[in-house]
From TrEMBL:
Chain ranges of the Mycothiol-dependent maleylpyruvate isomerase metal-binding domain: 12-136
GO terms, molecular function: metal ion binding
Pfam families referenced in this protein's UniProt entry, alphabetically: MDMPI_N (PF11716)
Domain of life of the source: Bacteria
SUPFAM superfamilies found in the cross-reference section: DinB/YfiT-like putative metalloenzymes (SSF109854)
Protein name (record): Mycothiol-dependent maleylpyruvate isomerase metal-binding domain-containing protein
Region forming the signal peptide: none
Length: 194
């Protein structure tokens, strides 16, 4: 898929829906389950994903950054998990609504810095969508990623992930498997076993 065909804002909305749905589907006994993110529980993945959304918003708005390090989540959330997530998603959605679709320099919290609007929103979407998959997989839910989401997310991933692997943000890519769909291709590229 060509970058010109990636609608970052719609992709972000779809990824937010996927993450919201995955979190809503976690049972009361599911928050301490292990996830595909090595060494992190479902709660910690939620904290990481919510913290990243707040970070993307803060990079744009200059507002508050996450109160906890998203890369060292405590595993404890005060209050409702869904409310905790809702606040983070609202912050990032509102921040991206202020960005023109053709903006060339949108601030991000990534080491790469500012990037075109489609890619900045796509990077935020990639984070939400893939962690939605992590939470759903850990808790026995159906994958919230669709091939329609995965194709554009893979385009985004190919544009931003390689330098992030050095920071430990993504594992090494796994070899592609013949006959798999876009969802599997995306997950393998990000070092996850479909």
């Amino acid at each position: 898929m060509d970058s010109k065909n990636v609608d970052g804002k719609n992709l972000l909305a779809d990824s937010h829906t996927a993450l919201r749905t995955a979190v809503a589907g976690v049972g009361v006994d599911g928050w301490d389950l292990p996830t595909p993110c090595e060494k992190w529980t479902v709660t910690q993945v939620l904290q990481h994903a919510a913290g990243d959304q707040v970070g993307y918003a803060a990079a744009i708005t200059g507002g508050p950054w996450p109160t906890e390090d998203p890369f060292s989540p405590s595993g404890r959330i005060d209050g409702e998990h869904s409310a905790y997530l809702a606040a983070a998603l609202a912050a990032s959605a509102a921040a991206y609504e202020t960005i023109a679709v053709d903006a060339e320099q949108v601030p991000t919290p990534l080491p790469q810095g500012a990037m075109p609007a489609w890619l900045a929103a796509g990077a935020c979407a990639l984070d939400a969508g893939v962690h939605a998959w992590d939470i759903a997989t850990a808790t026995g839910q159906a994958s919230p990623l669709t091939p329609e989401m995965a194709g554009p997310l893979l385009t985004v991933a190919r544009a931003i992930v390689e330098p992030l692997r050095a920071y430990g943000a993504y594992a090494a890519a796994l070899p592609a498997a013949e006959g798999e769909d876009e969802v599997a291709a995306l997950l393998r590229y990000l070092g996850r076993q479909p």
